[in-house]
Design brief:
Blueprint: E1 4-5, E2 32-39, E3 43-51, H1 62-66, E4 69-71, E5 74-78, E6 84-87, H2 89-102, H3 110-123, E7 135-144, E8 156-166, E9 177-181, H4 199-203, H5 206-214, E10 219-223, E11 231-234, E12 237-243, E13 246-249, H6 260-268, E14 275-278, H7 283-291, E15 297-302, E16 306-315, E17 318-321, H8 329-343, E18 353-356
Parallel strand pairs: 1-3, 9-10, 9-16, 13-14
Antiparallel strand pairs: 2-3, 2-8, 4-7, 5-6, 5-7, 6-18, 7-8, 10-11, 11-12, 12-13, 12-15, 15-16, 16-17
The structure holds pyridoxal-5'-phosphate.
The site of pyridoxal-5'-phosphate has 14 residues, from strand 12, helix 6 and strand 15.
Length: about 350
């Protein structure tokens, strides 16, 4: 598949990264972006790699009013030998199309998705940082651009990909975070859009996150939308709890996101000597198990921060510390192994890594 590469005028070229340790997350973008359009009756057309920058949209655009939008998140790593690696990008391509289907948007052929990303990242390879904990974050996005206020699926879409050199997702880096179990607001309900990576899920989560932040928490942990009783997930991470060497996570029941990192933990953990279990986790039982010391560690999994240790979990009036507020052994082991595979320090026996020419 060929993408037209539009010229990059010198005045559109940005200053290169000055200090890779100060990148933060998603604040800086590279020089170019991928843009493809879909029109009813015509399909995908006009695939091009163009200078990064604002594009014009009609103020009546469907995405701006009714949030017909989906996105993905994956990373490219520059290995010590100079090769550029992607981690399980096919999973993102498939999930993108599952989200598209739920939001009545056209599927992006996997080859278009993957080749587009590979050609864009290849052109932008000089933007991939190499300091520890850094990578190039890739954000594929699709938006509905019909300039019509009637509520209906659009006849015209933009699929675009932007790239951001990133450091640690949390300012504190790989350190335990504090989590509040949200018992009032809910993120998703059975039959809703919780399983899709779609913007509206995040808009509706902002209020709870803001209230929690004011109380000193880093994230909220969502409970199921029907009974507010079963553990679902955190804003952009799936959750795991270690009962000794047994690692437990909530099942994919339709209202939580099917994380690539979650799936990788479930496949990787047995090879490190842990057993894994997907089952419903009652928050009251979880609190009891933490109190009794049966739950020894908790961590989140997601592309942005890979593995995030949890130091404290609060529900209603009770706050419980996990692993003495330190990083647990299993959490550290999974973090080291997963990031090791992603960056080429550890051999990939799962076939998860693919390279960009
Ligand atoms: C993206 C995301 C995750 C993590 O998925 P990964 O594929 O592991 O990055 C978890 N929960 C939500 C709500 C997400 O949006």
């Amino acid at each position: 598949m060929d993408f037209k590469v539009l010229p990059l005028p010198v005045e559109k070229m940005k200053d290169k990264i000055k200090d890779e340790t100060q990148l933060g997350f998603g604040k800086l973008f590279t020089d170019r972006m991928l843009m493809v359009e879909w029109k009813d009756g015509q399909g995908w057309c006009d695939a091009r790699i163009q200078p990064y920058g604002p594009f014009s949209m009609d103020p009546a655009c469907a995405v701006l009013h009714y949030a017909q939008e989906i996105f993905e998140g994956l990373k490219a790593y520059k290995w010590a030998d100079g090769r550029i690696a992607l981690f399980r990008p096919g999973m993102n391509a498939r999930r993108f199309n599952q989200s598209a289907e739920r939001m009545c948007m056209p599927a992006v052929p996997e080859e278009l998705f993957l080749e587009g990303i590979k050609q864009l990242v290849s052109l932008e390879r000089d933007w991939i940082p190499t300091a520890p904990e850094t990578s190039l974050y890739i954000r594929p996005t699709m938006i509905a651009v019909d300039p019509v206020l009637g509520v209906k699926p659009s006849d015209h879409y933009y699929f675009y990909v932007i790239l951001s050199p990133v450091g640690a997702y949390y300012a504190a880096g790989f350190n335990p975070i504090n989590i509040l179990v949200e018992d009032h607001y809910v993120r998703a309900v059975p039959g809703g859009t919780g399983e899709a990576k779609t913007g509206g899920n995040y808009a509706s989560s902002l209020m709870a996150a803001q209230v929690a932040k004011k109380k000193g928490f880093d994230q909220v942990l969502w409970l199921d939308g029907r009974e507010r009783r079963y553990i679902e997930e955190v804003g952009a991470m799936n959750m795991f709890f270690a009962y000794g060497k047994r690692i437990v996570t909530a099942p994919l029941t339709g209202s939580i996101l099917s994380g690539v990192t979650r799936d990788s933990v479930l496949k990787l953990a047995p090879s490190l000597g842990y057993t894994v279990e997907e089952r419903q986790i009652d928050v009251n039982e979880l609190m009891t198990d933490i109190r009794n010391g049966r739950v020894t560690e908790a961590f989140g999994s997601g592309t942005a921060a890979v593995i995030t240790p949890v130091g404290k979990l609060c529900y209603k009036d009770e706050c419980l510390q996990l692993t003495g507020g330190r990083v647990g052994e299993i959490t550290q082991d999974l973090y080291d192994t997963l990031t090791g595979i992603q960056t080429g320090r550890i051999a990939d026996s799962f076939g998860w890594v693919s390279f960009i020419e």
